[in-house]
């Protein structure tokens, strides 16, 4: 799946379409919190959109 928006825009990742909690948080040094994670979720349109950046201690 290709990510849309945020610091990982255009990155392709493997996701499990059957996961009951499909949100993903990927380690990203390019976001608001270096060493934190960028959070993406599936949109109604079927693409994965950036939601927000999380600091390292948030997870």
Structural notes for this entry:
Keywords: Plasmid. This protein has no helices and four strands. Strands 1-4-3-2 form a four-stranded mixed beta sheet, with no helix packed on it. The radius of gyration is 11 Å and the shape is globular. The chain has strands at residues 3-4, 24-28, 36-42, 48-54. The protein has one domain. With 59 residues, it is an all-beta fold. The mean pLDDT is 90. The termini are far apart.
Question: How would you summarize what this structure contains?
Answer:
The protein is mainly β and 59 residues long. The chain has strands at 3-4, 24-28, 36-42, 48-54. It is built from no helices and four strands.
Keyword list:
single chain; mainly beta; 59 residues; 36% strand
* Spatial arrangement of strands, main beta sheet: 1-4-3-2
Number of domains: 1
Per DSSP, the total helix count is 0
Estimate percent helicity.
Answer: under 10%
- The beta-strand count equals 4
| Class by alpha and beta content | mainly beta
Spatial gap, N to C terminus: 23 Å
Largest sheet, if any? 4 strands, mixed
The whole-angstrom Rg is 11 Å
Choose one word for the global shape: globular
Helix and strand succession?
EEEE
> What fraction of the residues are assigned to beta strands by DSSP?
35-45%
Q: Mean pLDDT across all residues, rounded?
A: 90
Flag low-confidence runs.
none
């Amino acid at each position: 799946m290709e990510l849309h928006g945020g610091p990982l825009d255009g990155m392709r990742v493997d996701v499990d379409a059957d996961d009951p909690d499909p949100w993903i948080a990927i380690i990203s040094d390019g976001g608001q919190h270096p060493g934190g994670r960028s959070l993406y979720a599936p949109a109604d349109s079927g693409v994965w959109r950036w939601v927000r950046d999380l600091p390292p201690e948030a997870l």
